[in-house]
Amino acid sequence: MAPAYKLIYFNARGKAEHIRFIFAYAGVDYVDERIPKEKWSHYKSRMPYGMVPVLEINGKQVAQSNAIARYLARQYGLAGKDEWESLQCDVLVDTLSDLKQALFQYRMEPDPLRKDERKQTLLKETIPFFLDKFEKVLEENGGFSVGGALTWTDFVFAVSLENFELIFGKESLDHYPKLKALKDKVFSLPRIQEWIKKRPVTEF
Ligand SMILES: N[C@@H](CCC(=O)N[C@@H](CS)C(=O)NCC(=O)O)C(=O)O
Prior knowledge:
Blueprint: E1 5-10, H1 17-26, E2 31-35, H2 40-44, E3 54-57, E4 60-63, H3 65-75, H4 83-108, H5 112-140, H6 152-168, H7 177-187, H8 190-198
Parallel strand pairs: 1-2
Antiparallel strand pairs: 1-3, 3-4
Helix pairs in contact: 1-3, 1-6, 1-8, 4-5, 4-6, 5-7, 6-7
Glutathione binds at residues 14-15, 44, 50-53, 64-66.
């Protein structure tokens, strides 16, 4: 019997959406619990490390978005065909996290001058540095991120690129046709499309 899953997060895509993509793709039922912001203090003390996402598996709580995603990906054949590919998945997810961290710092920057400086550095240096490398990885892997086949890493790319286009505009991926194609490929998977149609609309 499939375990009873409950995914606890805010009403946002954020650090939970790639997990929701795995569930959607694998056709696995789960409770998608979205904590209202005003109830967070009540929940926080009940979370293993005071943060979300948290996945409950038959009532047992586990934290850390990527540990959860990796665990589920292994259950549902989305973690590469061997340990080497599984390692490549992790390397790309962690590298993408480095870029996302820089984007997050830019989005959260309160000082307008500093924010503009951050934006220029991102656009001229950080983004091309990472995206050029990712583009090459996709070229070497037949349009996927690892091993020429779909993995959870492709979901992490797809949800991150959705946000990237929201921040920098649709044309921002024009120089990165392989990344754009990967995002489109993931978003056109029938079960992902079903999820997109029914998921709550949120800013990020
Ligand atoms: N490394 C953790 C970070 C989790 C995290 O930063 N969660 C944020 C939401 S995106 C959170 O719970 N913030 C509320 C708080 O810290 O009180 C993961 O990837 O799951």
